[in-house]
Amino acid sequence: xxxxxxxPRLDVEQIPTSxxxxxxxTLFQAINLAFQDPEVQADYQRWKAERRQSYEQTS
Length: 59
Description:
66% of the residues lie in helices and 0% in strands. By secondary structure, the chain is an all-alpha fold.
């Protein structure tokens, strides 16, 4: 069984802003590139529809 204490803690306050910005830009570029793939877009649309349906059933 995995315990939350098995993972190292990360104090994000210790990360310089410039590093945070670089990480965010890199992540954004990777996500943007992935979403250019029609298969990824279709999977995302399916996910959105499932979430919408789940939300409507609980409302």
